Structures are given as C-alpha cells and as structure tokens.
Records
---
Amino acid sequence: MPIKPVIVLAVTGMIMSVLAACTTSAPLAPPESVEITFQHRAPIRLDVARIEIVDAYEPPLRAPNVEHLHELSPSEVAIRWSEDRLRTVGTRGQLTLIIEEASVVEEAIKVADGLGGFFRDEPDTRLTGRVKARFDYVDVGPPSRSHAVDVSAEASIEVLESATLNERDIAYLRLVERLATEFDKALTGELETTFATLIRR
C-alpha cells in the first residue's frame, strides 16, 4: 500500500465539515491554510556535498490551467518533498532537482442531456495534475562523473456537477495529495535505482 504524504491544514476542520455536510444541508467550509509534508517518511541520505532545487516551471496563468488559482501548488509540494526527504552526507558532488512542469489542468466532461441526465449527478469536471522533473548529478572529480534522468508523476480526480465551489476546492486539494503520493513514489524509486550508489543507509 503506498504511503501518503501528510496534509496539515485544518485537516480536522475539513473532515468535520465533510461530516457535517453528510448530515445537514450546510455547505462545506472553505479550506484554511494547507500544507503537505513528507516528514513522516525516512530521509534519503545522499553522498553529495550539495543539493539544489530549481523551480523552472512558469504557470501560464490562464485556462485550462488552474494551479495559480489555489494557495497550494504542485511546485510547492515538489520543493517541500526535496526539503523533507533529501539530506547531504558527502563532501563532493551536487544533485540538482529541476522542476520542469507542475501543472493542474481543468477539463470539462460532457454530461447526459435530457430527462435521464436531470436525475443523475454526474461528473462534469476532471482535474489532472502533472509534475515533470529532472535529476542532474555532477561530480567534478577526479574522476569526474555526471548523470541526468527524467521523472514524472500524474494524478486525476473527477468532480460532480452538483459540487459547490468549496467542494471543488477540496477536490483540488485531494488531487494535489494524490499527486504528491505519486511524485514521492516516482522520485524515491528513481533515486533507489539510478542513483543507488549515492544512497547511504
């Protein structure tokens, strides 16, 4: 079973709001400050002197992208992953994580027309999150070494047409949580295979 990142928010406030919505007609309360962390995951100790994080993604700030409309972005999650999980224990060499894409795209889903569609609550929106990054390792030596590898993660979620604006915000947070889980899995796996010689247990 994959290990999920931890969402620190008002996770309590959000859960209580969801439970309240199940028993009353009151709308969900909007999420408060949100943070996803990976501090519950074991740090990865790397035989390098320096780790650098480069956020090279420039959001287009227009539809169909929506990550710029929310407090928490996939870029922030990727940076937090690096801060929480990577540790330097070496005296030479540098590992750079370059974030090339960290997007969330909103796509309309066609719902049924006519009387049949009227009585069904169908998904009308799909959110798809993607993170693409590259690990660059350089050691000036001697002997000199360098290696680069691309890593990607993706997740999606569908939103019912009856969802309120607050429920759609919560759906976005759930998507980012899923994306964080996939990102953690992909990057950890790549480090443990391609860069296995750099890992110190």
Note: The chain has one domain: 6-198.
---
Amino acid sequence: MTAELTRAEKVQLLRLARQGLEAAVRGQAPPPLADEARTPALVQPGCSFVTLSEQGELRGCIGGLMAEEPLWRDVQRRAGQAGLHDYRFIPVQPAELPQIEIEVSVLSEPAPLDYATPDELLRRLRPHVDGVVLRQGLSRATFLPQVWESVPDPEQFLALLCQKLGVRPDAWRREHLQVETYQVEEFREPEFEEARSGLDRPTARPTT
C-alpha cells in the first residue's frame, strides 16, 4: 500500500468498483480508466478486497493478497467477482444493484509475523489494525482488519481463521503455522456522496 489515497482517488476507486459490479451483473465489459484519470497511485500495482452489502448484510466479498495489476483494474475486477463468484451467495441480480453498497479495502503487502510460542503470537497481533493471513503448505486464509469489529478476542479470531483455512480451530496452538499481517485503507460509498455520480478526474499528487 502506498501513501494515503486522496479523497478524489478514493471516489474514483469506488466508482470503478461500481462500474465493475454493474458490468459483471449485466454481462458486459467495464470501461477502462480514462487516461486523464490515471494518477500514480491508481496505475501502480496494487491489491484490494471489495465488499458488497445489502441492507446492512454481507452480500459478497472477494479480494487478493498479491499485487499483480494496476490498482484501479484490481478494484474493478474484484467488484465484479464479489457480485458473481462469492461461493457463499447466489449471484447479485440487476434489480439488487441500487440497494448494494460497496466498500473497498486497499492492502499493504503482507509481511511475515515471527513468533516463538502461541502466547507470543497472541501478544504480537494488533486487533483493529492488522489483517491476518494463516498459511499451511499451499493453503492460506485471511481476515481483513474489519473482522476484529465482530471478533475482538484474538484467540477466537485465530480459531475462526483456522476453520477458514480448513484446519482444527486450535491448530494455531498445536502447530507453528505461518502468519503474515497487513494493513488496509478502507472506504465505502456512504462516506462519499459523489461516488455514485459520473466519473471525474482525481486530483494529481504533488511532485514535491
């Protein structure tokens, strides 16, 4: 994750996510980002999670942990995937689109969290700050930092993340799992009234 995004860049990403979601639901291709809107923060490689909610309930969430394409394109693509390919939900239907609210989380690069004992792991976690990745072999699972809001206890947090990984809830105590942490910059449509209007040009970053 780079320097903090400007308000205009956040609005642009929310609009791109909305475009990606609506295009995917309607079976269309989303438009590319206009050349004049391509700020350095939006065109450099980045990774994101896009979360959809409807009437306060989760409606889809998909993202990635590795930056493989420009941030703007990653956000746009993840939004379409969240609408159609979250296995926990049926695909979003066109009639639902006006009720869907979008949240974008832009991730920093995950960094290994070294620990010697389970108790040290608990001490080193930072609730409400860190997203956490657990790895076992080729399998991995993650919770965004926002999950701490509903699961504030670190032991329960790790137990649920182990279950998501497909291992026993106490595997974090019984085995030395690989752990990584990352941080996010998250923002959502209700915070930006202009996010659902037409695309505009993000403010360029200062060069000094």
Note: The helical segments are 7-25, 40-43, 71-84, 118-124, 154-165, 171-174.
---
Amino acid sequence: MSNPADPSGIIIQRAEILSPTAQTLINALNVELLGRYPEEGACHFRLDAQEVADGLGAFLIAFRWGTPVGCGAVRRIEVQTGEIKRMYVVPQERGRGVGRAILNAIETEARVLRLSRLVLETGVRQTEAQALYERTGFTRIPPFGEYIDSPLSICMAKSL
C-alpha cells in the first residue's frame, strides 16, 4: 500500500484481524485503553473479523522497516459511511507520522469501498488522537451508535 521506496520506512498492509501480529497490536491497545479509562463500560473494543472482510472493510497494519508499529481498521456501518476502529500506534513511534499514514491508508480503503464519509469515536483523555484527527480534517459530531450514552467519548466525522 505504501511506497516501498518511502524514506520513512513505513509500509501499510492489509492483514487478517485474527493474525498474531494484529492480535499483539490490538492487545496492546486494549491494555492502554483500560489504563486510561478504568471506568466500567468506558471502552468499546468490539470489532468482528467479518466486519473487516473484503468488500465490507479492512484491517491494516503499519510496519516501519519490517517491524509492526501500528494498526487501524474501517468497517462499513451504513451504505456510504464507514467507521474507523482500532487505531493504535506503539508508544515509541508516536509523533513520527505512523498515525497519519494509517489514516491515509484507511481513507484509500474507504474510497475503494465507495464510502463518502468516515466517522470515529475517540476518548476525552486521548488528546493526541483528537489533535491528529482534527489536523486531518475530522470535525466533532454528536455521539452515534454505541457511543450515545458514553460521557467519555468524542465522535468525529469527515467527508471524503
């Protein structure tokens, strides 16, 4: 997906969400989120393999020089709308363009799926994630879906 000649060494690839590499990244994300949001019911972890199957969505892994450094997914939730899920960058790679590269790849996948809008949920304590999303054109929207009654959630959207 990314240019192999990219001097940053970042390559984004589609992957199976149940693969060992994907599961390692997802587990690290879950541990981090549970640490930031210890409140009961604060974390929304659900993403099923069929939701990111070909034609419905995609699960992506970012590699830098062959080492997995992040992940993200898109799943169709309406005919023209996709939801970004499971965005994660390992702590030592934050601030080095990995999150933006994953978002760019997700947007590419969304266009392949003929989606015209992306939505996402992030947490009130994830100010760095909020800043990334705002820098890439996402704006706040009212809570949707499972996040409607979540006081710790911030929902955002972007037209493609």
Note: The first helix runs from residue 20 to 36.
